[in-house]
Write a structure and sequence with these properties.
Layout lengths: L11 H9 L3 E3 L3 E7 L7 E5 L8 H17 L8 E7 L8 H14 L11
Parallel strand pairs: 3-4
Antiparallel strand pairs: 1-2, 2-4
Helix pairs in contact: 2-3
C-alpha cells in the first residue's frame, strides 16, 4: 500500500526548507532530515534516492517502494507535526525489503521520530 499524496513532500522549496533546518541523523544506509511543523494533521515524508546509488531507475524506484512501504507500516507510530526527508545511501542497494524497513526504523529511532520495537520472526 502506498502513502497518500498528502503524506508526501514533493516540491523543491519544501525539500529546501527541511534541509535548511540542518537537523539530521544518519546510519549506514539512510540520512533523515526533520523539521517540526505546527498544526499538521499528519506527518509528511520526502524520499530521495540519487543516481549515485544506481544508474538504473528500476533499482532506485524499488528502494523508494520499500521505503514507502516501511513508512506505511509504521504510519501510526510517527508524530503528526513533523516533516522529514529520507535520503538513501549507496549501500541501500544491497538491502531487501526487510533490511530497508529494519534500517529505516533504526534511523527514525535515532531521530526520535519512532520508538524501536523488538522484531519477532
Amino acid at each position: 500500500m502506498a502513502l497518500k499524496k498528502s503524506y508526501r513532500i514533493k516540491r523543491e522549496n519544501e525539500f529546501q526548507l527541511v534541509y535548511a533546518s540542518q537537523n539530521s541523523v544518519a546510519n549506514r544506509y539512510f540520512v533523515v532530515y526533520r523539521i517540526v511543523k505546527e498544526g499538521q494533521s499528519h506527518f509528511r515524508a520526502g524520499i530521495s534516492v540519487g543516481k549515485k546509488i544506481s544508474k538504473l531507475s528500476v533499482d532506485r524506484n524499488r528502494i523508494k517502494r520499500y521505503i514507502t512501504q516501511a513508512l506505511f507500516n509504521h504510519r501510526d507510530e510517527l508524530p503528526k507535526e513533523i516533516d522529514f526527508i529520507i535520503i538513501a545511501r549507496k549501500k541501500t542497494i544491497e538491502l531487501d525489503s526487510f533490511g530497508v524497513e529494519k534500517n529505516l526504523i533504526h534511523c527514525l529511532n535515532l531521530a526520535h521520530l519512532i520508538s524501536q520495537q523488538e522484531e519477532t520472526s
